[in-house]
## 1
Amino acid sequence: MISPRIVQKAIDLLQHSFQMTQIRNYALMIIAVAFAQGFFLFLMRRTIIVASREIENDLRNDLFWKLEELSSSFYNQMPTGDIMSRATNDMNAVRSVLGPGIAYSVNTIMAFLFVIPMMITISPLLTAIALIPFPIMAVIVNRFGKAINKRYEKIQAQLAAISTFVQENLSGIAIIRAFVREKHQMEKFYELNEDYLHKNLSFARVYAAFHPVLMLIIGFAVVLVLLGGGKLVIDKTISIGELTAFMLYLGMLVWPSIALGWVVGLYQQGTASMKRIRHILDADPDIVDGQISLFPDQPEGKIEYKNLNFSYEETPILENINLTIHPQATLGILGQTGSGKTTLVRLIPHLYPLSTGQLFIDERDINEYQLSALRRQIGYVTQDTFLFSDTIHNNIAFATPDASREEVISAAKIAAIHTEILEFPEGYDSYLGERGINLSGGQKQRVSIARAILANPKILILDDAFSALDTYTEDSILQNLKKIFPDKTVILISHRISTLQNADHIIVLERGKIVEKGSHDALLQQDGLYAHIYQKQLLELEIESVS
């Protein structure tokens, strides 16, 4: 705020007798003020930008932690690409508000608070004339701000759609090539990209008009000051030095006014992005931790379903399930596709919300257990095996990162994958591609089985875990698993009766209901669905052996 006053005194000095030392002193004062201004500007920017990066870091950590604790139903409704867009592009927009947005907002507020009083001390009348266009500016900023916000929300939503489409295409590239759909997918991408382009151009047109309109208003204010100020100088109401200082003060308001428009744009983008991020942060998990933080010191592994009914979004999946799985017993589950087998076992690790009194583990309602404590006692090999882009060792030791190489090898041997791992160039230290793309389907399943075995759970669930394996390899793994079966409750889901026939108890599901149950021999005697499937599979084996 001091520089224009120094310039004013120097110019007014030129109208009278002066010495060069006096001019030199004023020049040195202006240089000193400029150095001080630059130094504190550096400190301010460093402080605020660093703070904005720290806040971005915390916010990203909060977002990821929230994503980790949200239940499966949330991911059924929100595409992965949309989530990625919110975690990257939207996060950057929020950071811009917290960094440059705050910095320039403070500069603008401070400039108006200090510059206008300095202008008033020179000439209240001229100050009133200079501020005439500013109410117009406020209205324009408000109108443009709403338009920017609306268009930016559409841009981010379209970007999320593109991210989702690209992510799905990269994950399913083998399917796209197998069905020769590359051209079709490219055309769909062109359409999405073209829509994204149009939305960006619509945003750019509004944003491009914003700054020129502000400059026009500021230019109008300068014209008014030149006309009014010139008249006051002629009338000797103010000096030329004071007019010059006034013009410099008005110039100090030019950049804050321009920055105001830029900040409004940042703020509108940031609020639109924060709204999208808050959609995740404010989401409530369907499943809440219970009060019991620890399993019993010696968990038994008993599982009881009592009059259990379950639906996906009002679509009945399981009806009136009554089932007791005794500790250390092996349960086999057979049923046609869509009969509810996977849903039945996915309820055990509490992946979906359940009403109280329907599912009990070790005589306690599943809702009473803390989720982490419950799931640490459960090993679950899913139908759709998932492997991380990491070494084979780390994939097997995912649930037990402190496991030694010997323990990992032992689990791999039980899963009948050890010999094949040694054939990789770096053995257990070989890196897998995305989702284990450099492994066959059967190898992925066996690595997943080894991962579950190494976790040493009390309850082991194998959901069609042998579907990609030949019967010889499957039998080898089952023989190996018998070594760990005696002290574990095991649930086997399979379409092959050969996998289930040695189980202690077998149930048959049909349309979400248990229609048959008993041992292998007892079910054959009932001559129902189980016996029908068994006879069919025997016939298929005979045909294969003949061919």
## 2
Amino acid sequence: MRWLTALAALAVAAPVVAVTTPAAAASPAVLPVTVTNNTGRGDAVFLYVIGTMNGRWGYVNSSGAFNPWPAGGNPPVPAPDVSMAGPGNGGTTTIRIPKGLSGRVYMALGDKIKFFITPDGFVQPAPWAPGDPNFNTLFDTSEFTFNDAGLWLNSSQVDFFGIPHAVTVTNGAGQTKRTGDVVNDGRNKIINAIKAQPGWQDSVITRADGTVLRVLAPGKATDAGKFPANYLDAYINSAWNAYTSRTLTVVPRQNEPNRKFFGRTVGNTMRFTDSTGAEVATVDKPSTANVWGCDGVFNAPNVAPFIQSEVRRTICTALVRGTLGTSTVEPVYDANAFYKNSAPNHYSRIIHANMADGKAYGFAYDDVGGFESLVHDGDPQQAGIIMSPFGAGGNPPTPPPATGNRILSNWNNKCVDVSNANFSDGVPLQVWTCNNTAAQAWTFTGNTISTQNNKCMDVAWGSRDNGAVVQIATCSGNAAQQFVLNPAGDLVNPQAGKCVDIAAWNPDDGARLHLWDCVGGQNQKWRRG
């Protein structure tokens, strides 16, 4: 059995992420992870930490020690009970993850999970299959990688949506990142919206006692015989044929906008060339099953120069999100364009629509463009998993929306943000994951853009130079505080005739803003939201 595609993608992505680890603190050898139970249910909770370390499958005990599985068998034999007692409703339990482990935290309510092992590994539970011994068990997972480069932790819905949960990481500076919260009554809203979608209702799995166990992703619902196997076929044919007479440009890396590949459909194959005209990648027309799993024709060796794997990943993402066929450039980063094709992925659409920050791992490559429910830090000191309420109420997942407009980057969907919410004169502006706080709320009045604290977007010292810092300062009406967001998405300071630009194409939270010649790059494209 193979690990979830999303975790495989996460493990591949981790080494190439630029990480700066502060010298002030080193991440611990064993990371404490606090699991909080806000479900509102009275079930007993069982926790498991299972993964691979140094090429071996195993489990982690309550002290954070990794233990390889004992010898398994063929057919697979039951694994030892390695569960740890989890928190009761309203309580917390701390588990520990050793550095070097990549795997999952399993959370089960009411019953323990039955695991099985083989001579060379571990059999993943397959709760979408009626014959699986865990079919009637209410459980879910968080996926993680913890190594010298930091922690990556996500709440995945790639296979199914069962127990909604948020994930957090806190670094040595005391800064906490959090994602994965559903909106108020989000679990019920997701379940009910799927049930109300014609043809999708059978993917909601309900136990005999009335408990909704999970909503299956379309690929798993198809495997279980609960969803049409040819659902995407007509859409795939249409999208494929769209590029027989026009070119699809693929720009797989957000921070390398000039790294482009050009595709045309020839028969059943999309063929991609580089700027010299040399063929560098091909993608055969996929089946519906290939698209749901982003596998089969989308498989490619993940080796340098990565072109084949990046192109195939991009095409699968475009098909799942429904942008292929109408787009001329992929990936598309405007979420408003997703799931509007002739055969929409309502599963992913509905889950994203019911997340407090809009982020989820609705399919294997939802990280393309930064739409995934993932936290990462190069200096993790502690982490958390918070199981959300199954009904209305519970702790608010995010602060109430601040009054005003957000200014979002079309490139990475991050928001223009006042650093550390410090509304003092001269504080530089940055981009940060959108969080609905006052630091990201802007009021447009004429050609001025102001915060709620009577501070205006400002060019430091009124400079007209490339690289001039964009900051906040007390509103004065001078030319350094005049900005126009034009229909092309350029945020222009008319005095300088230059654009607000994400410096150095930095994709990370904290990337600074400055003025630069308007060149039409995606790091200069903005929208109000």
